[in-house]
Design brief:
alpha/beta; 30 helices; Arc Repressor Mutant, subunit A; Elongation Factor Tu (Ef-tu), domain 3; Ub-activating_enz_E1_C; eight-stranded mixed sheet; UBQ-activ_enz_E1; nucleotide-binding; Rossmann fold; disordered N terminus; SUMO activating enzyme activity; about 1100 residues; EC 6.2.1.45
């Protein structure tokens, strides 16, 4: 049907030409409008070393119409260390672009991937560029050579002067630094600058006058900013504001803002349920050419007035890198395209002089320039770039590959494009002189024509060997895990004879994974993630020593991940998507004193955290606040946001198609036992609901056919969208006033609803009935007819079904969260007893029929578009929104919220794992906190914030401790969670002996000894609180622990304990105790 069929469009998994199954997580980030633009885009990527292949991979996963690759250079051995789609068999035989295209096309069958053959048969020309919407120039050509900058400037000028400008991007990684440049023409239009959901606030008051002053409810900050545009809805008394026109706000405070609009004649504001919503207004953004930005890289209207500075401990570094890159380009132009020779002092000195000459000429020309003066050029920065320019740090290539692919997506008008240069370095990865891994002389940088040439050329042969011999544990092989495995294979981590990478993940591959978990293919769906990912990574580098497990990491698997396993590791990398597992791994790493690198993504946002033993705080030391839950009253009767409606519909699904059917099945299997137990339910309303629900389910199961399913769906519509709404308005009429405050009841967040009467002419009504009926049929084993969604058939079935008139009932409904009234009707007890009697009668008289009933509860599954689950929730939540005049949302948005889907895209994942790779390289030096960086980034708005990790939290002495309510002495002073006291004992050591040992060594009195059993802290010895514990003093510690339920595997020879102790001056805090036996 146009209606029900629209509601069920997901059956094909496609909408507007977009595969909503494959792109579900990406749609959650970009939205359907951007996806529609993206799938029409044609992109050319020139250069297929590290940055180029990462950009191609990320972009192909995103789903443009076509991705064309160009790099006719024949594959070299060193390419295998940065382009993971090149193989040993390609070396010296196959062009980079042809070999890469064959593999990139496997990533997404919807994208046309090919290698370009130039129009002139020789090299790239403007005739080739004219075929594309956007072109990306990355590192290309034979090792040690680059395309002249003058050619890039000419190509850029051609692109920006077309009638419809062709987007132009340049990206390069030179050694341990990288850059990106972007030009979208003189009048690029941004439709959504940040991709955030529009904020909505409830209005408490509007003061009219020459300047209109708006106040919002003071229970929550509205989140608006100066310069935002807003739209008003449901304003009473000042109806002119409801015209739907965006209005610019100013003078923003936490709970208010002004509008430069004279509202003197608009009337007086009436307290109501008015809202104000942020809206996105398109705005143009102008760019300058690659040539023009050379001397003035910062746009005049840039709010920061400087190049993007990701790391403010390096303020000014981006400008120095800009000069260094320009100087290298000048050097190449003077040397036939050749880059400076690696680690060559003469070439490096020449590049430094070129940098100074460039700046001198810029200042001497009389033209405006932002370049530093010659004397302010930092020679060490320029030399660092020059000496390593021929090599490529793969981690930086991954980072810039994520950034650049995201910039390509921004050509659609979504998000804020880069203006216009971005530089980042990882100089800290180079071991300092004197460090055991620092190259002793230039000979260590000599390359030998292998896949590890980039690593050797950057860090030296001994450092490369050190990386190859590391033992790494990767927890998770989803989106992050796939990227990590690829990065490990490229950098050689765990690739030596003594190296090892262990990866574990208990999940299997799903269709929706293929859009960003790039190691998987359609034929892998249903297989183990860890196994497939490990095999794919090993194919990229056969040297990789990788072991794949399907075992979760947690307290229940400590026999698998035992002391020997953890003790043998050099590094742990988390690729998890839940906090509980992260906290467990973090705690284990603290215990075993192993470095841990954390990371996570959410749409275009991502973060990294370095956990280094004794140097930084751990992941568990700081946690994000828990998300606010929706109050029950808001959910049941007073929604004011679409999220409330969707959660309500999800609960309706659970109650109608899962819980009630499960309860009916339980009754079928043990009738009298179930009835007796249910009658003991203390809440009368809940008791009634359960019993009536089972009566209804048993009745339907015994007589259901398709018509009955449609009738029941029609009744559910009438109950939820008409009768219950009428009852709510009966209890609280629209003119109801709070007797205590005198404020209208239906104001603020409380929106007066409007009942919906079922109509066969309303597509949304019929769509709800169709999907509801199909779910009911599935519950009771009824075949769903092929014309289940036919509009005429549904109209015919529902047209004659009665719509009972509303009859008010004596029902208590809470007026808000502060209302302590007990909800329900005055006949709940009576109706519950009647229902119980009816069920007993059915059990007695129809035992055989009851036992034979087919009852199948729905198990919610968000990614199966044939099961009606998301379709029902979308229909139900949008009808609920219509009741309350809340804007409805498309199906894919409902799916994301109801399915608790974490929006995810390949670009962010690739970028953040690149940053993690940089931190991994640092952990194998002598770690210093000033070298590490935690990062938060948001690719949507080009926000990169790097900072030193926090040091570990110290326990210090206090004159007054709020927990102990007295003085507290720390022993030793300033100990951290990384510290512990180790007691060498034996299996025979008694509790008293352990107590005395601790007391003597720490010079304290022991008050409590506690252990953790199955995640719960229990007192093992606390005689002051539990005198019975005196009997444990003569018993072995190990026996007492086992008696308390502690699992002590044969290989575990220790017990961790917490101790509460004191001395004559008061309480004493000491580190945890490790009792070894």
């Amino acid at each position: 049907m146009a209606a029900a069929a629209a509601a069920s469009s997901a059956a094909s998994g496609a909408a507007d030409g977009v595969d909503t199954n494959l792109y579900s997580r990406q749609i959650g980030v970009y939205g359907m409008e951007t996806m529609g633009k993206l799938i029409a885009m044609k992109v050319l990527i020139v250069g297929l070393k590290g940055v180029g292949i990462e950009t191609a991979k990320n972009l192909t996963l995103a789903g443009p119409q076509s991705v064309t690759l160009y790099d006719p250079t024949v594959t070299e051995a060193a390419d295998l260390g940065c382009n993971y789609y090149l193989e040993a068999s390609h070396v010296g035989k196959v062009r980079r672009d042809e070999a890469s295209a064959a593999r990139v096309k496997e990533l997404n069958s919807y994208v046309r991937v090919s290698a370009l053959e130039p129009e002139n048969g020789k090299d790239l020309s403007t005739a080739d560029l004219a075929k594309f919407d956007l072109v990306v120039f990355c590192d290309e050509g034979p090792a040690g050579f680059v395309r002249p900058r003058s050619e890039l400037e000419a190509f850029n000028e051609f692109c920006r002067t077309q009638a419809t400008p062709i987007g132009f991007i340049v990206a390069s990684v030179r050694g341990v630094s990288g850059m990106a440049f972007l030009d979208f023409g003189d009048a690029h239009v941004v439709f959504d600058s940040n991709g955030e959901q529009n904020r909505v606030a409830t209005i408490s008051n509007i003061s009219n006058g020459p300047v209109t002053k708006v106040m919002t409810e003071d229970t929550k900050r509205h989140g608006f900013e100066d310069g935002d545009f807003v739209v008003f809805r449901d304003v009473e008394g000042m109806d002119k504001l409801n015209d739907g026109e965006p209005r610019k706000i100013c003078n923003v405070t936490a709970h208010g803002f002004d509008i430069e609009e004279d509202s003197s004649s608009y009337g007086e504001f009436v307290v109501c349920s008015a809202t104000v919503e942020q809206t996105k207004v398109p705005h143009p953004v102008a760019f300058a050419s690659y040539a023009d930005r050379r001397l003035n890289p910062v746009p005049a209207d840039d709010p920061m007035g400087c190049l993007i500075t990701a790391d403010y401990s390096k303020f000014g570094r981006p400008m120095q890198l800009h000069v260094a890159y320009a100087a290298v380009d000048n050097f190449a132009a003077s040397n036939g395209g050749r880059l400076p020779k690696p680690h060559d002092e003469a070439d490096a000195a020449a590049v430094v002089e070129a940098a100074k000459a460039l700046c001198a000429a810029a200042h001497a020309s009389g033209a405006d320039t932002q370049l530093p003066k010659p004397e302010d050029v930092e020679a060490d920065v320029v030399a660092m770039v020059a000496k390593r320019a021929v090599y490529e740090l793969q981690s930086l290539a991954a980072f810039f590959g994520g950034v650049v692919a995201q910039e390509v997506v921004k050509f659609t008008g979504k998000y804020s494009p880069l203006r216009q240069f971005f530089y980042l370095d990882a100089f800290e990865t180079i071991a300092e002189e004197g460090h055991e891994l620092a190259a002793k002389d230039v000979s260590e940088f000599a390359v030998t024509g292998t896949r590890y040439d980039h690593v050797v050329g950057l860090f030296g042969s001994r450092y490369a060997e050190h990386l190859q011999s590391r033992k790494v544990f990767l927890v998770g092989s989803g989106a992050l895990g796939c990227e990590f495995l690829k990065n490990f294979a490229m950098m050689g981590l765990g690739c030596g004879a003594d190296g090892r990478v262990t990866v574990t993940d208990m999940d299997n591959i799903e269709v929706s994974n293929l859009n960003r978990q790039f190691l998987f293919r359609p034929e892998d769906v249903g297989k183990a993630k860890s196994v497939c990912a490990a095999a794919a990574a090993k194919a990229m580098n056969p040297d990789l020593k990788v072991e794949a497990l399907e075992v979760p990491v947690g307290p229940d698997t400590e026999s698998t991940f035992d002391d020997a396993f953890w003790s043998g590791l050099d590094l742990v990398t988390n690729a998890l998507d839940n906090v509980k597992a992260r906290l467990y791994v973090d705690g284990i790493c603290v215990f075993y004193r192993k470095p841990l690198i954390e990371s996570g993504t959410l749409g275009t946002k991502a973060n990294t955290q370095v956990v280094a033993p004794f140097i930084t705080e751990s992941y568990g030391d700081s946690q994000d606040p828990e998300e606010d839950s929706i109050p029950m009253c808001t959910l049941k009767n007073f929604p004011h946001a679409i999220e409330h409606c969707i959660e309500w519909a999800r609960d309706m699904f659970q109650g109608a198609f899962t819980d009630s059917v499960q309860e009916a099945a339980a009754f079928r299997d043990a009738p009298e036992e179930w009835v007796k137990k249910t009658l003991e339910e203390p809440n009368a309303f809940t008791r009634r609901q359960k019993l009536e629900g089972v009566v209804n389910a048993i009745d339907l199961a015994g007589r259901a056919d398709w018509r009955t399913c449609v009738e029941e769906a029609r009744k559910l519509f009438h109950t939820h969208y008409y009768t219950n709404i009428c009852q709510l308005l009966h209890n609280f009429p629209k003119d109801y006033v709070n007797k205590e405050t005198g404020v209208p009841f239906w104001s603020g967040h409380k929106r007066a609803p409007q009942p919906l009467e079922f109509s066969i002419d309303e597509p949304e009504h019929l769509g709800f009935v169709a999907h509801t009926a199909a779910l009911i049929a599935d519950n009771f084993g009824i075949a769903v007819p092929s014309n289940w969604s036919d509009i005429e058939a549904l109209r015919e079935l529902t047209a004659s079904m009665p719509q009972p008139a509303f009859v008010p009932k004596a029902v208590v409904i809470k007026s808000g969260e502060d209302d302590d009234a007990v909800e329900g009707g005055d006949d709940d007890d009576k109706v519950a007893v009647e229902a119980a009697d009816k069920l007993r009668s059915i059990a007695a008289s129809m035992a055989a029929e009851l036992a034979a009933l087919k009852l199948a509860a729905a198990d919610f599954e968000k990614d199966d578009d044939t099961n009606h689950h998301i379709d029902f929730i979308a229909a139900a939540s949008n009808l609920r929104a219509s009741n309350y005049r809340i804007p409805t949302v498309p199906r894919h948005r409902v799916k994301i919220i109801a399915g608790k889907i974490i929006p995810a895209i390949a670009t962010t994942t690739c970028a953040v794992t690149g940053l993690v790779g940089i931190e991994i390289l640092k952990t194998f030096r002598v770690p210093k906190i000033e070298a590490f960086r935690n990062t938060f980034l948001n690719l949507a708005i080009n926000m990169y914030a790097m900072s030193e990790p926090m040091p570990p939290k110290k326990t210090v002495s206090k004159e007054y401790d709020p927990v102990t309510m007295g003085p507290l002495r720390a022993q030793p002073e300033g100990f951290t969670p990384w510290d512990r006291i180790e007691i060498d004992g034996s299996e025979a050591m008694t509790v008293a002996e352990l107590r005395d040992n601790i007391a003597a060594s720490q010079k304290v009195d022991i008050d409590i000894l506690s252990v953790t059993v199955n995640g719960e802290t229990k007192m093992m010895y606390a005689p002051l609180f539990a005198p019975s514990h005196r009997a444990r003093e003569t018993r072995p510690v190990v026996d007492v622990c086992r008696e308390m339920g502690m699992d002590l595997p044969e290989k575990r020879r220790y017990v961790m304990m917490d101790v509460a102790c004191s001395d004559s001056d008061g309480d004493v805090a000491v580190p945890r105790i490790m009792f070894k036996f």
